[in-house]
Amino acid sequence: MALDLLLEAVLFGILLGCFYAAVSMGLSVSFGLLDVPHVAHPAIMVLGAYCTWLLGTWGFDPIIAGVVLTVPFFLLGMLIYRFYYEAFERRGSDAGVRGIAFFFGVALIIEVGLILAFGVDQRMVEAPYIGKSINIGWDIRLPMRTLTVFAVALAMSAVLTLYMSKTFTGRAIKAVAQDEAALRLMGADPVRIKQWAFGIATAAAALGGAMLIIIGPVDPGLDRVYIGRTFAVVVLAGLGSMTGTIAAGLVLGISESIVLIHPSLGASWAPAVSFTLLLLVLGVRPQGLFGR
Questions:
Q1: pTM metric for this prediction
Q2: What is the 3-state secondary structure (H, E, C) of the chain?
Q3: Domains in the chain, ordered, with CATH?
Q4: pLDDT tens-digit profile of 156-204?
């Protein structure tokens, strides 16, 4: 493999990895911190992408649309968690198994609803930074859309990290899955904290959906492509680590990019990278790169 080709793969892998981190932030909260088997996260992200497209038809920039959508999706997330808690988590220790079935059902409802509402055709958005690129020398051009997602991913990571470490609610979110009794002694209601956190996770998924449609066209079944990648990023990072999510996204993005350009592998092997990394991490370092 030529050195210049490897350099290009690493650069594109860094941008791709930050995109993976951006779409995994919400799952890092819901699954990593709350222990909720939120397999519907990619489907909610695709729903956010379609809502971004709808706002785009009214003249909204995709990034602005994603920020606007965080409010209704936050409320949606609180409603989903409340139903999940009352129907499953409150009733016993088998909530995890039943919860997986519940969230698979949520994902199926979202996918079928999108097909009924919009059909199976792909949707895309327009913005000044979509379709343009920057030449950084060595015959390497970086797409502005991936640079935009790179910046948004860093901003999301910084905001969530500060919120989780500098506010009482953020620290309560980090503690709720570890010791609910101690959290009650601190004057916080674990159920309300989890409900609030799940709202944040769903709002992050909406913004991730905006990033998804910036990167490329979306269709109702796109969530299946990202379910393995997002869970691989969260587990590789260490459950609940925001900065670890960025690092894990970079590892996955660079690995996929190198596999894509490798002459004996190619695009058909790229989807296997996330599952391979996931199995390696679970076998060698189950707590992830940064731990919990």
A1: 0.90
A2: CCHHHHHHHHHHHHHHHHHHHHHHHHHHHHCCCCCCCCCCHHHHHHHHHHHHHHHHHCCCCHHHHHHHHHHHHHHHHHHHHHHHHHHCHHHCCCHHHHHHHHHHHHHHHHHHHHHHHHCCCCECCCCCCCCCEEECCCCCEEEHHHHHHHHHHHHHHHHHHHHHHHCHHHHHHHHHCCCHHHHHHCCCCHHHHHHHHHHHHHHHHHHHHHHHHHHCCECCCCHHHHHHHHHHHHHHHCCCCHHHHHHHHHHHHHHHHHHHHCCCCCHHHHHHHHHHHHHHHHHHCCCCCCCC
A3: 3-120+140-284 (1.10.3470)
A4: 888 988 998 888 888 888 888 777 777 777 777 888 999 999 999 999 9
